[in-house]
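User: Hi! I have a protein structure encoded as tokens and I'd like to know what sequence might fold into it. I'm fairly new to this, so please keep things simple.
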């Protein structure tokens, strides 16, 4: 361990950290929001503000039978909702777009109170919901209208593929992006004519409820989106048991359980899971640009971001220059429990997250890792703050080498040969996101094809791919199944139904033709189709 690793700056504690002074957390507003949880109200769970540890809300808990009744309401509403005009459903999303931009300050306040993240990272959620709403509102017709396909006999068989809604979609969302992970996956499901039963993570129920309230204000009828609340192991299985499709975002461990239960019911699921994402900084990279991107790549939302970077492979020729530029930026980051756009790093969400981060760093240090920056919890800033931490000399014996930390911790590795860097980046079982910094974009594109992960950003941290809503986002290998965003993100909520209309001839002998003659005719027709280059 270095004698004196760098320390990021701590911002001054905000003397006015009073949740009840926040509009979205006014006790009357909180009561209104919590009234939307589908629960018989027999049990409650207290949530706390990560910034200070103060109590935030006493959230009604749903039982498995509450989940069943929420699903029954969603099912009863679905046919009427699916029969509404697609233009009207798109209008709801366009209204939501405007509402989230207009009300961004209230939304961001609430996200910050519930998750403890820095304000600029909370804004990313507002922007992501707005982009997703606009994108699907403007593309839904293209993706959902019946599409013609090639028929059996040219001109004589006309085929149309309909997109039939799955029915009731179950959404199980995590706490790390509590507003956009609650809303954005549901928007294409709504457009496709589904209704929703949604379980947000227990830490961040209010952000999800605010999203649903805004959707209703935007024009979504009541009952279309049901929110239930409770521990995943207690009510997650009931959701899977009562819906027609599951959209899950969370850890690989839970994703496996969700997939197993969904498979047992023969329903589909999409799984957006964990990662141990690599960043490759090639010898011709712009060092200053790479160092700036690396800070965002590693420490946005205090590293509690599925696409954030936890491993950095740096070309030997520029290793020292990059390390110094990166560490300089890390040490000038501002950590604070406040609501200012000046703050670069917020809090972790829970004692469990703080424990994981502390354990990973302490284990690495005990086994010989060098701390280049950070490396310690900062209770002086807030109970769950941890410094942005950069490690060197991490090896496979250390827990943080291959396991996701999901916190503000990154390990630096030197490479001399690009093929070796690609192989090391592909090590392990995850495959979510990667980033490449180089001046040679053509080379980066060819490297991207050799990386086994669902998204690759060239000369950007994660936002280029994640913010390009027209392109699919998701993981390979143990980072997930299926994709959000793009056509894939809406088609997953539909059953393709082929409707073929036959004219004039039939698919059988006609006009007294024998079966033998028919077979000969068919054989000749098949040969002809190939010669005519028909697919
Ligand atoms: P988690 O799997 O513990 O929880 C995620 C959600 O699943 C929560 O709502 C939780 O209540 C619920 N859940 C827990 N057990 C369940 C069960 N048995 N059945 C059904 N639902 C259950 O995840 P976490 O540790 O809280 O979240 C962090 C993880 O999520 C990280 O691994 C991160 O990489 C991943 N994540 C991935 C993405 C992505 O898009 N790929 C986005 C955000 C987070």
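Assistant: Happy to help. Inverse folding works backwards from shape to sequence: for each of the 535 positions I chose a residue that suits the local structure. Here it is:
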């Amino acid at each position: 361990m270095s004698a004196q690793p760098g320390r990021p700056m701590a911002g001054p504690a905000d003397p006015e950290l009073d949740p009840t002074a926040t509009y979205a957390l006014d006790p009357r507003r909180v009561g209104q929001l919590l009234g939307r949880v589908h629960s018989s109200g027999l049990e409650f769970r207290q949530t706390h503000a990560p910034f200070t540890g103060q109590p935030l809300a006493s959230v009604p808990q749903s039982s498995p039978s509450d989940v069943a009744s929420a699903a029954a309401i969603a099912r009863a509403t679905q046919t009427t909702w699916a029969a509404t005009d697609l233009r009207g459903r798109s209008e709801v999303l366009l209204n939501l777009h405007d509402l989230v931009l207009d009300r961004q300050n209230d939304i961001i306040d609430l996200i910050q109170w519930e998750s403890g993240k820095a304000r600029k990272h909370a804004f990313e959620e507002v922007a992501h919901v707005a982009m997703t709403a606009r994108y699907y509102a403007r593309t839904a017709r293209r993706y959902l209208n019946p599409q013609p396909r090639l028929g059996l006999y040219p001109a004589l068989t006309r085929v149309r593929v309909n997109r039939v809604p799955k029915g009731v979609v179950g959404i199980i969302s995590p706490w790390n992006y509590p507003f956009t992970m609650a809303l954005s996956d549901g928007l294409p499901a709504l457009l496709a004519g589904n209704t929703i039963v949604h379980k947000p993570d227990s830490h961040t129920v209010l952000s999800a409820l605010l999203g649903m309230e805004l959707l209703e204000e935007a024009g979504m009828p009541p009952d279309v989106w049901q929110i239930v609340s409770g521990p995943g192991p207690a009510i997650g299985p009931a959701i899977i048991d009562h819906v027609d499709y599951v959209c899950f975002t969370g850890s690989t461990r839970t994703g496996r359980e969700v997939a197993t239960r969904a498979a047992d019911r023969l329903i589909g699921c999409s799984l957006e899971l964990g990662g141990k994402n690599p960043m490759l900084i090639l010898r011709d990279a712009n060092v200053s640009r790479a160092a700036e991107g690396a800070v965002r790549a590693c420490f946005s939302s205090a590293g509690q971001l599925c696409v954030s970077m936890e491993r950095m492979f740096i070309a030997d020729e520029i290793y020292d220059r990059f390390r110094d530029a990166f560490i300089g930026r890390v040490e000038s980051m501002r950590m604070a429990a406040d609501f200012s756009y000046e703050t670069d790093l917020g809090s972790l969400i829970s004692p469990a997250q703080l424990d994981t981060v502390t354990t990973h760093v302490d284990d690495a240090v005990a086994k010989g890792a060098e701390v280049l920056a950070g490396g310690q919890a900062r209770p002086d800033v807030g109970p769950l703050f941890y410094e942005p931490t950069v490690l060197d000399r991490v090896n496979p014996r250390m827990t943080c080498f291959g396991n996701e930390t999901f916190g503000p911790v990154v390990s630096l590795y030197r490479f001399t040969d690009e093929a070796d860097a690609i192989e090391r980046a592909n090590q392990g079982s995850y495959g979510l996101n990667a980033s490449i910094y180089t001046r040679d974009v053509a080379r980066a594109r060819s490297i991207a094809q050799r990386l086994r992960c669902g998204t690759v950003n060239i000369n950007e941290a994660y936002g280029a791919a994640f913010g390009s809503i027209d392109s699919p986002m998701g993981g390979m290998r143990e980072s997930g199944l299926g994709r959000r965003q793009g056509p894939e993100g809406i088609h997953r909520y539909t059953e393709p139904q082929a409707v073929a209309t036959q004219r004039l001839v039939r698919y059988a002998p006609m006009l007294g033709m024998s079966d033998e003659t028919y077979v000969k005719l068919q054989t000749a027709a098949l040969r002809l189709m190939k010669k005519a280059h028909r697919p």
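A useful reference point when you look it over: The longest strand covers residues 157-165. Feel free to ask if any position seems puzzling.
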